[in-house]
């Protein structure tokens, strides 16, 4: 049976300025729904590469004015590109997907730009590596997409930006620019700094010490592989909220270090326990699969580091009727064995372990 084509809510054509990871991913997702997408970038090679991957086509002088312009450029030029797009395409709705919303809005307001057709937005999606080569049509599926509107935003303009987010599978959230920047400072920008500084401590570590690294270190430092140049821009644009968070974090570290310096002093153990327990409470608030706060049980299965083993494990989980909510793989240094940590619903965890062991799998 032929699969029915996806129907787009978005009214095209859509012009994407900035054909890197986010811009090309927007193009790929909209092209899957049949939307006409044109591309533009300061680098002709970047446009050609994104077009080769199917994210759209290079815009020409003969193309009609787009209905929507999506700006996916670095934060330090976002305001300039938004201003230019509003001037070039006076009848189009213009949105940007920069990770900081207040600074561009304030700069455009300071310049006296008419922002009637501008709607700031930000999809909470990305990858450690950028560029069109890393773009994916499903990059935004199930991810929050923040839309920042004001009282003068026309309903039609807002609807067009929201249509793009929905077509790309994102979950719409409305915030003010101030709310957005404070929020991403906490859930994105602070973790980036902490991960980077933690990973930086590894530079002087010995090889034997590095060989002891496990899942905890990998989880904590995964995002430290992000592009430093981009993060200099993001952190600089959102420096107010980030500095406040870093100062609060520094105070927590100082309190923790003071208690740990002499754990036998009166109240020290309780202070340590309280700070660790606060972490338990905080992590319990992080949304899980599909945006829910539901927590899952983890099952660790030992698998031989040979082709086909992981596929066999996943196949047998399906045969057993066990739905895998998440999967993380870890290799044992110097050994031909790996660990598959599978997240399942708590009520099926015991049965899953029993059934897997019965089929010859080793679990931890």
From TrEMBL:
Entry annotated with the keyword Amino-acid biosynthesis: yes
Swiss-Prot/TrEMBL keywords: Amino-acid biosynthesis, Aromatic amino acid biosynthesis, NAD, Oxidoreductase, Tyrosine biosynthesis
Pathways per UniProt: Amino-acid biosynthesis; L-tyrosine biosynthesis; (4-hydroxyphenyl)pyruvate from prephenate (NAD(+) route): step 1/1
Regions that span the bilayer: none
PROSITE patterns: ACT, PDH_ADH
The keyword Transmembrane is annotated on this UniProt entry: no
Every ACT domain range: 298-364
Enzyme class: oxidoreductase
Annotated Pfam families: PDH_C, PDH_N
Catalysed reactions listed for this entry: prephenate + NAD(+) = 3-(4-hydroxyphenyl)pyruvate + CO2 + NADH
UniProt family annotation: Belongs to the prephenate/arogenate dehydrogenase family.
Identification of the protein by name: Prephenate dehydrogenase
Species, as recorded: Leucobacter exalbidus
């Amino acid at each position: 049976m032929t699969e029915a084509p996806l129907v787009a809510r978005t009214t095209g054509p859509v012009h994407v300025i900035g054909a890197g990871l986010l811009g090309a991913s927007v193009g790929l997702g909209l092209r899957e729904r049949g939307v006409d997408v044109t591309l533009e970038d300061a680098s002709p090679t970047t446009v050609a590469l994104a077009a080769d991957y199917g994210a759209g086509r290079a815009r020409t002088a003969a193309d009609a004015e787009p209905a929507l312009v999506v700006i996916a450029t670095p934060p330090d030029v976002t305001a300039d590109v938004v201003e230019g797009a509003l001037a070039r395409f006076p009848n189009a709705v213009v949105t940007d997907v920069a990770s900081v919303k207040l600074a561009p809005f304030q700069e455009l307001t300071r310049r006296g730009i008419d922002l009637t057709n501008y709607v700031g937005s930000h999809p909470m999606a990305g990858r450690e590596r950028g560029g069109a080569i890393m773009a994916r049509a499903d990059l935004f599926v199930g991810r929050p997409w923040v839309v920042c509107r004001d009282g003068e935003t026309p309903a039609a303009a807002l609807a067009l930006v929201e249509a793009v987010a929905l077509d790309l599978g994102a979950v719409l959230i409305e915030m003010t620019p101030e709310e957005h920047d404070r929020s991403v400072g906490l859930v994105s920008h602070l973790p980036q700094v902490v991960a980077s500084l933690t990973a930086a401590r590894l530079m002087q570590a010995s090889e034997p010490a590095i060989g002891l690294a496990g899942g905890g270190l990998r989880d904590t430092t995964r995002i430290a592989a992000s592009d430093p140049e981009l993060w200099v821009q993001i952190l600089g644009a959102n420096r107010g909220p980030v500095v406040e968070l870093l100062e609060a974090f520094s105070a927590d570290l100082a309190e923790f270090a003071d208690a740990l310096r002499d754990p036998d002093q009166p109240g020290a153990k309780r202070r340590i326990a309280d700070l660790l327990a606060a972490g338990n409470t905080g992590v319990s608030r992080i949304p899980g699969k599909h945006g829910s706060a539901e927590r899952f049980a983890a099952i660790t299965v030992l698998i031989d580091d040979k082709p086909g083993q992981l596929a066999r494990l996943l196949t047998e989980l399906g045969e057993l009727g066990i739905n895998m909510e998440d999967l993380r793989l870890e290799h044992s240094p110097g050994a031909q064995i790996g660990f598959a940590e599978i997240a399942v619903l708590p009520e099926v965890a015991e049965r899953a372990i029993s059934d897997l062991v019965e089929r010859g799998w080793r679990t931890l």
